[in-house]
# Entry
Amino acid sequence: MTTWLVNGQRDGRLSPTDRGLAYGDGLFETIALRTGRLRFLDYHFERLVFGCERLGIPVPDTDQLTQELETAREDCTDGTAKIIITRGVGPRGYRPPPAALPTRVVGVTATDASVKSVWREGIRVRLCDTRLSENETFGGMKTLNRLEQVMARNEWRTPDIAEGLMMTDSGHVICGTASNLFLVRDDTLLTPSLERCGVRGVMRRVILEEAERLGIVVQRPVVTRAMLAAAEEVFVSNSLQGIGPVTAWNDERYGVGELTRALMAGLAERGVQECTAG
Amino acid sequence: MTTWLVNGQRDGRLSPTDRGLAYGDGLFETIALRTGRLRFLDYHFERLVFGCERLGIPVPDTDQLTQELETAREDCTDGTAKIIITRGVGPRGYRPPPAALPTRVVGVTATDASVKSVWREGIRVRLCDTRLSENETFGGMKTLNRLEQVMARNEWRTPDIAEGLMMTDSGHVICGTASNLFLVRDDTLLTPSLERCGVRGVMRRVILEEAERLGIVVQRPVVTRAMLAAAEEVFVSNSLQGIGPVTAWNDERYGVGELTRALMAGLAERGVQECTAG
# Structure
């Protein structure tokens, strides 16, 4: 069950001339609602504001968004919140209207608490055929242009595979369909550079902060399939599930290693209860 | 003034959970309505059906779409019709629902007849900084993921520039923000290959048919900036305006050459009145 507000209006709907629909001209955020708290909401807002500035969409009032998120969640304490900001309705044609009036969508979906920690014990991943295209204009942003992820996620339906890893158009391993990717090799944490591709995840940011706090060396290289196969530890991350240690990919098997565990413990301390041991 | 039908309902609106909004998970067509006729409607339908099949979206009933277009246009004889097909509403997450119920949007915007033939006498173009990313999964399709075109079209506001040409991420000239590109060199018609990027335009298809009819040699090479600069004739095309001969790009000047004129005459005979001489 989802409760939505569109421009503050409960159960509001959108015009078919909204540029979010017409062109994917907008951005979104997916936020974990845990024990009544919108987790890392400030980080989500920071990314949203950064994206709006990059796209030239008037920056939304985050106080108003916070208030609307509170309204939408009602008495729901655990679920998934979503914010969509589009450039709003406009006349025909790609050209953005000079004075855009953004559309604001805020929604909360209650989730069954039992599905929360499915990632913790380790997950199996596949490598998707659908590639992620590269374009430095949009690197790191969470825009509404997500058809590549949709097609990648459509490649498998077997429930034993939790996530699909994706390669860039030029053949480098970059992220999961809905997650960021980390490898561990020689006590070093590696995560792909997102300058030209991929979403700069909020949980990725928290992990990088925890890595710094723990004194772990971090590198942001171009990641190849060979590096993935040779990694000592592999995990994916996202806002809703924290860290998912990858224990299987094709014939490769990985343990849930020390460094992954240390980061999970760090995340658990910061309220990512999905990473709590046991 | 635009009249819309959403799933057949006049002035219908869309759910914020529609995957067209959430992910750009859908396709669209923009069709010229001229003297009461939806021009090349069969070609638009062919591309739409092809796209739906590629994306795994249930193919819409084109008879129903035709009927709805007729309803939406009322007594309007000249304007722009648009069809949007999305994968419909769905639960959270990229994964397409196994039984998608597509959303069907049909709209007609009446246009001022006086702006119809702005391209005919020749246009000035620029080369955009925003690149088009490459991905063979979507090559040629007109999906709702169009943020690259939006950002490219946002690069200029001076009315003397009619269109912006775009380069692929790897630096080849590929198309305009809302048009396909053609060059003439040594009596040969060149148009960029669209295997990995760009939209296979309906007017482009008609032009290629006319070229064949006229016995013009056609090639689909990778097009470089140098080839653009050295071309004898350059033109862009789209469904709404037919052919726009490019007469200026930076310091380059091009004439409206013989081959371009022959193709414009061929188009005029097929109902593209925007290409009618004089």
Observations:
- The CA atoms of residues 164 and 184 of chain A lie 19 Å apart.
